[in-house]
User: Fold this.
Amino acid sequence: MNTTKAQSAPSRLSQKFIQFILLSTILIAICLAAFVAGASCLVVAPLDFQVPNDPALSFAADISFAAEVIAADPIGRTFVMDWYPTPNVGCSSSPNLVADIYLDHGILDSSSPSYSILPPYPPVYRYNVTALCEPATSTSPAFRTISKLLASEISLGYAGPTRSTLQNYPFDVYFAPFMLHAVNPGTGEFYRLNITRSFGIAVNFQVTLQTARVVTDSPPWLRATLRVERSKATQIFVVIVAITNWLTAAAFLTISAATLIYQPHKIYSEMFVVPVGSLFAFTSIRASLPGAPSGFGTTIDLYTILPVLVVMSICSSFLLLVVLYRRILRIGENEIDSSKPCHSYVMKTSNNFNLNKKDKQDGEFGMSDTETTIIFDAQSARRSP
Assistant:
């Protein structure tokens, strides 16, 4: 029988190990597949638009642009883009095309290279086809603009109904307007513009075309407004972190309630280590949220991290006071017991189970008819659990 038990023990261990490997592999595969599928759906799409965005409104432009999104900064309220102009006429047909490209001065940020506080305002770029057509001076035309990121869409000089600030993180929405026109510095002739392609990604932001319009009258303007908002991955991550914060707070509230209801329940040291560690962990996670403003004060902070920190601090203080109270009660009981005199009691029992040497060898318990006297101390019996 002992041999059978000894052989079955390793087999049970091997079965448990196999179950452990299978379960771990299944859990890892499920989590990996779920997160890969979620990441592929939540990846930020690159910018892709044209102006005019309706093929029926297309026209023969003199200069076409390719636009690239570089960065968006809601804290500094700036939006950075690179522009790549391309002439729609060859070097042989219009070799003397020179155009000063202007961006509306009210849209430019003060950190933009072409920003000026006093008129006449300089162009953001001088486009010289003659220099481009010369092999010795041929360069790749490109220029960068740093424009303002607005909290509301501007329509006819007035702010629209949608307004957003960092207080709404991670559901804040911003708008980046552009108004471009090109003019010949010598003749004053205006050139028609359009955007044929766009690309680029602002990290952690989804940029889409909100409105687009081309004014072909004199002077012709190219107007476009981009909508800038947090990526879906950032929004979902912040919401999940908020839910886990409240789940942790609910767990410690449950522990505090159990301490009151089940008074003999033992309080372990982990009950204090985990809340204190969670307080530091939550603040670190809050500081590392993608694109979150520094400090606390956003709307999601008022509903998640701030009340959770208060709840966990209260729970930690409550558990400490409970431990202190129970220890004071235990010390008082021990002092009362030590002040009482010691008494001895004699009890006689018969037909007790005794294990003699013969029975010990046989592995059986025998009955003894002799009476056994048991003397014990009342004080030690009272202290024993």
About this structure: The CA atoms of residues 217 and 374 lie 116 Å apart. The longest strand covers residues 63-73.
